[in-house]
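Work Package 4 report. The design task specified in the project plan requires that, given a folded chain encoded as structure tokens, an amino acid be chosen for each position. We show below one input record used in the internal validation round.
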């Protein structure tokens, strides 16, 4: 069974996703079959660049076609719910860029639509499929670190002036865009809902958070301190501390290629290099989530155990809690879904 992908939008991350896919040595029985954009000429240009066979004049046309099995949604945050819903209702599986939705309400509604249609959907938290994350999980579960007590993560990228980050109507929010990675890292380590969330930050003149400091408290007085910054570049690493030692996930922790173990051993994970031009760091790693999507679809799964619906719901809940404390409110928060 060939898995046929339909790329939704001709944007930067769509470019990176297709580049990562096409440059990977073996994607198995999968193909990038089609693309749709708001404007057909942009879709045609995208298709020409990436040698994609089919171009659709609109998202709706591709959703209704029988030419694709799964949609990759590379749209702006406010359109994730609407477009994922469109493709699900047309019987297509979905891989939607993070954040899956603007808030918990949308996330819950979208996941229940997928369940009712018996279709696969996943939030593209691509970090979870990094080979280095598999190694990190093994290290934590091995007991070498002892009992994990503390996690610290930094994610700072100077993107506060990018429209989709700084404008509320485009879904701008540091915690939605980059803070999600710090939250998912803490959840990857602790695997339980925090008992307390404390957050404070800085908002811009559009009411969008550009800096967030988040403290997650877990059972047994375990903690995570997350520094999120859309104004300046930070040393974007994550460290997991236990009673017997620590492991550091080097920059960029959100898709790392280096782990520094407690004994000082530096473990490297090479990404397939190619002459592709990417918009974002380590984007060659975007392919690993696509391999997982295909595996799950072929096994008839509705979700991936590595980035489950429960996890997406919890991440949405935590983002809502952070936004409330920092003072960021979206119009969509007042709407019934
Ligand atoms: N996984 C990762 O590493 C990354 C993930 N992302 C995520 O990907 C998504 C897109 O980010 P990115 O690719 O940088 O975004 P872009 O600025 O490239 O825009 C993506 C697409 O959104 C549509 N769009 C652009 N402006 C508007 C607008 N004003 N109103 C409505 N639609 C618009 C266009 O679709 P069309 O082509 O159809 O016209 C565009 O191609 C975000 O949700 C972000 O969180 C982003 C960067 C990295
Ligand atoms: O997902 C992402 O990762 C890298 C950031 O630069 C980008 O803004 C964000 O969307």
């Amino acid at each position: 069974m060939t898995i046929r992908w339909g790329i939704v939008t001709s944007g930067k991350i769509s470019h990176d996703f297709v580049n990562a896919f096409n440059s990977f040595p073996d994607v198995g029985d999968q193909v990038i079959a089609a693309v749709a954009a708001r404007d057909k000429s942009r879709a045609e240009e995208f298709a020409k660049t990436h040698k994609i066979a089919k171009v659709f004049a609109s998202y709706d046309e591709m959703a209704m076609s029988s030419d694709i099995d799964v949609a990759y949604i590379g749209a702006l945050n406010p359109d994730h719910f609407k477009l994922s819903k469109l493709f699900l209702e047309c019987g297509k599986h979905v891989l939607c860029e993070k954040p899956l939705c603007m808030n918990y309400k949308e996330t819950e509604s979208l996941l229940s639509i997928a369940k009712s249609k018996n279709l696969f959907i996943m939030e593209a938290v691509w970090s979870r499929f990094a080979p280095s994350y598999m190694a990190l999980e093994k290290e934590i579960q091995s007991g070498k670190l002892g009992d994990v007590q503390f996690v610290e993560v930094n994610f700072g990228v100077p993107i506060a002036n990018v429209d989709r980050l700084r404008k509320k109507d485009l879904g701008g929010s540091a915690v939605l865009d980059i803070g999600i990675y710090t939250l998912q890292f803490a959840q990857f380590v602790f695997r339980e809902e925090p008992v307390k969330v404390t957050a404070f930050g800085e908002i811009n003149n559009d009411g969008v958070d550009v800096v967030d400091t988040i403290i997650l408290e877990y059972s047994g007085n375990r903690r995570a301190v997350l520094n999120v910054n859309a104004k300046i570049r930070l040393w974007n690493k994550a460290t997991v501390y236990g009673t017997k030692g620590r492991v550091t996930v080097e920059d960029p922790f959100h898709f790392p290629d280096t782990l520094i173990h407690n004994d000082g051993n530096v473990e490297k994970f090479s990404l397939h290099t190619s002459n592709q031009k990417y918009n974002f760091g380590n984007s060659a790693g975007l392919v690993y989530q696509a391999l997982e999507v295909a595996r799950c679809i072929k096994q008839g799964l509705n979700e991936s155990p590595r980035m489950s619906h429960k996890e997406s719901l919890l991440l949405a809940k935590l983002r809502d809690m952070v936004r409330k404390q920092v003072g960021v409110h979206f119009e969509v928060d007042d709407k019934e879904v």
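The chain has a mean pLDDT of 97. Validation will be extended to a larger panel in the next phase.
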